[in-house]
């Protein structure tokens, strides 16, 4: 437990598409290991591995959802959640007005 309290929390950063492509290229060419690339660019190995895996999916080398499909899925899930909330509000309003008119 003590070691968890001493971990340095990294602020969430965003990277350009060019930077991500450079990281992907370095790892996929085999010039450097994922660990070395992560260390050189001050990134976590998990983030680099995830980025490389997503690049392989986007290139069609691996099964999974492409970046575009992931974005579309996120949009559809948000819309679905909003619509469910709208339906719940309408149900409550219907019940309220049904009791008022009697």
Entry keywords:
72% helix, mainly alpha, 102 residues, elongated, single chain
Strand content: under 5%
- Number of helical regions: 5
Q: Globular, elongated, flat, extended or rod-shaped: what is the shape?
A: elongated
Alpha-carbon distance between the termini? 61 Å
Low-confidence stretches: none
H/E element order: HHHHH
Describe the structure.
72% of the residues lie in helices and 0% in strands. The chain has 5 helices and no strands. The model has no long low-confidence stretch (mean pLDDT 89). With 102 residues, it is mostly helical. It starts with a helix and ends with a helix. It has 2 domains: 51 residues; 38 residues. The protein is elongated, with a radius of gyration of 23 Å.
Summarize the structure.
Helix content is 72%, strand content 0%. It has 102 residues and is an all-alpha fold.
Topology:
Elements: H1 2-5, H2 17-29, H3 34-40, H4 45-59, H5 67-100
């Amino acid at each position: 437990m003590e070691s968890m309290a001493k971990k340095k929390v990294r602020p969430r950063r965003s990277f350009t598409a060019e930077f991500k492509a450079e990281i992907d290229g370095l790892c996929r060419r085999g010039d450097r290991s994922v660990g070395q690339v992560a260390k050189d660019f001050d990134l976590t190995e998990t983030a680099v591995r995830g980025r490389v895996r997503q690049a392989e999916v986007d290139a069609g080398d691996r099964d999974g959802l492409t970046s575009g499909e992931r974005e579309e899925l996120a949009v559809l899930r948000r819309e679905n959640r909003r619509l469910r909330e709208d339906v719940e509000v309408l149900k409550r309003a219907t019940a309220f007005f049904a009791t008022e008119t009697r």
